[in-house]
Amino acid sequence: MKQKLNLDTWNRKEHFLFFKQMEEPFFGITTTIDCTKAYANSKALGISFFTYYLHKTLIAVNAIEAFRYRIIENEIYIFDKIDASATILREDKTFGFSLIEYAEDLNEFAAITKKEIARIKTTTGLFTREFDSNLIHFSVLPWINFTSYSHARSFSFPDSCPKISFGKMMDENGKKTMSMSVHVHHGLMDGYHVGELVNLFQELMEA
Length: 207
Known about the structure:
By secondary structure, the chain is an alpha+beta fold. The chain has helices at about 15-20, 35-45, 50-65, 105-120, 190-205, and strands at about 1-5, 25-35, 70, 75-80, 85-90, 95, 135-140, 165, 170, 175-185. Strands 2, 5, 6, 7, 8, 9 and 10 form a seven-stranded mixed beta sheet that branches. It has a three-stranded antiparallel beta sheet with strand order 1-4-3, with no helix packed on it. Strand 9 (about 170) and strand 10 (about 175-185) form a beta hairpin.
């Protein structure tokens, strides 16, 4: 479900009209997340760490309204729920775009994630199902402790989905960290909102 945002009463109308005309309206940041407690929690619960922090990511995304905005035919819509399209690696080292639906309950979400990963691994190609706009694009580079990040993008293709990526988990004296990249459409949000997301996600990882 989604509802149209009234641009005429939105305090960011001018910002939206300014940034949406740019060839590259996305901006991004890279930061470091402390995942020491989250990693221990995932192991104690018997849930994969990937599933655990993907769930925390979606909790944060769904909690912040700006991350539920999408541009459809030059109008802004607010979705009730945001899911994830995560890149899933196959045995032959290709990947496919998944559709992992968000569920508040972690165990239910883990079951959904496990089923979708298994499905992707039995398919070929990139697009193995249809997608709506109520997504974040989610990816992981577990081989690289990156300090910056960019995405392949077609400027002519209408895209306003946030892109969130994580790097290799590092362990130094028992403290576990990983790099996190967030890219968003500047017509829909600003650095303040990205800061909200990162701070909330860190809080969730330490809960």
